[in-house]
Amino acid sequence: MRQCAEDFLKDVDCKLDYEAIHDVDRFWQSVKARRQGSTTKVGDGLNFNGTVYRSREDIVTQWGSYFKDLYSPSKSKDFDEPWRMMVEESVDRAFNNLIIDTDVTVQSTLVTECIRTLPKGKACGPDGITHKHLLYGCSVFSTPLAGLYTQMIRSGYIPDKMKEGEIITLHKGGRKSKSDPNNDRAITLSSSILKVYEMILLHRCKDKITQSLNKLQGGFQEQLGCIMTSFALRKCLYYARECSSPVYLCFLDARQVFDRVWLDGLFYKLLTLPGEKLDDRGCDPIFPYTTDGTSAMKTYVDANTLVAIREMYRNVQTRVRHKGMLSDPFPVLQ
After folding, report:
1. Do 173 and 12 contact (CB within 8 A), yes or no?
2. What is the Cα–Cα distance from 135 to 256, expressed in whole angstroms?
3. Residue 22's pLDDT is what?
4. pLDDT beneath 50: ranges in the chain
């Protein structure tokens, strides 16, 4: 019975993920039904920092504080401080030395191609623009959006309004306490216009980034995934069993790992693909300067895309929606 209940909850979570992409109306219906079906008894509430809150106003305020703290960097005594300082200084110098191509252009055909791959019914962000709006108006929107994206990628600027989001929370299910906010999963609804821009940036750098990936890595590669990884693991186990050889496996599960990403560390890895080190100027030590003597970065990903990706993490703000109420906006710093 317990296994059946866990399987059912996994199916519900998968259904929510699918509907959030493909059918916005059914997504909100499922969210409402899930919440109604998991309501606690009268008098129960959410426990934030040892205090139980029950009213909508208090809970949405506490949710805002909870995610604000979660998305704010925190220092750890166990972290290598000299390494952190070196990475942050190297990343700042590297981006300052990048030379932007002011003639780069985003073609309307690429915008059309990206829009047509959008799934219908995707839940909209704070701007109220859904995937359906873009899909049905693709022939009209493609050209002006191409002009907008061209100016964005040339200037390395993204309007702050595009980077706003709304978070809704759902209980993970099972026997986990419903009064503990750590047992809720967060779903962020963001701008559809920005998602198309993200697809364009991905189109510009995907092939170059995937070149540095190990061929045995199961994720983020074409025709590879969980099924292939599971198959490879099973074959290793069968082979070891036939050879009477021990097998050692390491499983790593980090709590809220995607909510605690060190951004400068992420950019450092992106700048140093495929594993090259930056010198003290934040430049490639082999080709640190251009022919005219100016400092420049030699990277696998072009400078415009790098600057655009970093800009997507600047001045990002979001809010929490809870039972029809919104929290105050707060920054997302990691």
Report:
1. yes
2. 34
3. 61
4. 38-43, 280-297
